Amino acid sequence: MRRILLWAARNRWLKERLPRFRWVRRATKRFMPGETASDALTAAVTHRAWGIDAVFTLLGENLTDLSEAHAVAEAYHGLLDEIAARGLDGEISLKLTQLGLDLDAETAFTLFDALAAHAAERATWAWIDMEGSAYTERTVAFYERARAKRENVGLCLQAYLHRTPADVQRLLPLRPAIRLVKGAYDEPASIAYGRRPEVDGAFVALSTQLLEAVRDGRARYVAATHDVALLERMARFGTAIGLDPARMELQMLYGIRLDQQRRLSEAGYDVRALIAYGSAWYPWYMRRLAERPANVVFALRQMLP
Ligand SMILES: Cc1cc2nc3c(=O)[nH]c(=O)nc-3n(C[C@H](O)[C@H](O)[C@H](O)COP(=O)(O)OP(=O)(O)OC[C@H]3O[C@@H](n4cnc5c(N)ncnc54)[C@H](O)[C@@H]3O)c2cc1C
Fold first, then answer.
1. What is the pLDDT of residues 52-110, one digit of tens each?
2. 226 Cα: distance to centroid of ligand 1 (angstroms)
3. Which of these is catalytic: 102, 129, 200, 270?
4. Which of 179, 220, 272, 288 is catalytic?
5. Residue 39 is a catalytic residue
6. Atom of ligand 1 nearest to the CA of 273
């Protein structure tokens, strides 16, 4: 089921047709508050009341024309102004292919750097999502360059990739900000762990190293997972090495395990919800279904009139 859904996420024919149906769009409500920035900002205001801050992402990836990258950057600049206008603690997270990495890497860098500068003026952060393995090396190198210029930039790394421990070692001397996830793409066994216990083991090993770096002021670390058992192991380790819950950052996706997000925030952890919006939601939404095939049943139920 996971393989089929990940295949469907990449299928151009389905991508062009499925989102046209209103009953398909209705099913996305599970993971996104709506398609507009205003929908996302309104959701963030509600989350703030629960003690949960936000990371915003405008959905879209693998553009075909550089003018789209400029439009994406403009949209993020507008969003940064809106976040500040509403007094929210909101960061942004984006995909480099959404800024045209495939078309012109230099333009992608200029656009990202301007967004990071704007985020710095607003005292917030700009994060880089991690995409499929064809982009890993380019994305890590891009981050090294961005981090050399600015403090308020972060990078997502995927625990399922065999290379990630080496990437963490490579980045630690830069005092990086790292968001660790399990990994959402269909990767071959030669480069990624496929079985859940292996991925979880890698996640724990990397988390312990990164929490020590947080304690020593050598990194910012965000654990981004809905796996509460893993988060609890991590929290126990953090406490054992003397970290206060407020210095342990956790992120989950909007709409998933809200009860846990609220519980963890009440327990004093620094919790953010990643709030996605935009009309180009199809591949992102299919990857969310693939993460938990039970969501397909939920989606089908929403599609019924
Ligand atoms: C803030 C954030 C940012 C992310 N950024 C990236 C990125 O840049 N690149 C990337 O490759 N991946 C990214 N991901 C996705 C990540 O790689 C995983 O695919 C995703 O988080 C599911 O794995 P899990 O860690 O929740 O653990 P799992 O072992 O998959 O799930 C643990 C439990 O959480 C619940 N759960 C998990 N997923 C869902 C779901 N979709 N719906 C309902 N319940 C669910 C289930 O109860 C499940 O038993 C991000 C995830 C988060 C939370």
1. 999 999 987 778 899 999 999 999 999 999 999 999 999 999 999 999 999 999 999 99
2. 6
3. 129
4. 179
5. no
6. 1
Tell me the per-residue pLDDT of 119-144, one tens digit each, with 9 for 90 and over. Answer: 999 999 999 999 999 999 999 999 99
Domain ranges of the chain: 2-14+33-292
Does the CB atom of residue 184 touch ligand 1 within 6 A? yes
Backbone φ, ψ for residue 256 (5° rounding): -110, 125
Q: Domain 2-14+33-292, CATH 3.40.50.1110 — does that match? A: no
For residue 250, give the H/E element and its range: strand 249-253
Q: Which amino acid residue places its CA nearest to atom 21 of ligand 1?
A: 225
DSSP 153: E
User: What distance in angstroms lies between residue 251's CA and the mean position of ligand 1's atoms?
Assistant: 10
Ligand 1 centroid–CA 123 distance in Å is 27
Q: What is the greatest pairwise CA distance in the chain? A: 55
Q: Is the full-model pTM beyond 0.90?
A: yes
What are the structure tokens assigned to 27, written together? 């099913």
Single out the residue of 181, 186, 230 nearest to residue 57, CA to CA.
181
Separation CA 225–CA 97 (nearest Å): 23
From the CB of 104, is ligand 1 less than 6 Å away?
A: no
Per-residue tokens: 295:
């969501």
What are residue 274's DSSP bridge partners? 55, 253
Q: Is 129 a catalytic residue?
A: yes
- Give me 170's structure tokens: 């490579």
pLDDT category at 271 given cuts 50, 70, 90 is very high
Cβ pair 222, 249 in contact under 8 A: yes
Provide the 3-class DSSP secondary structure of residue 278. Answer: coil
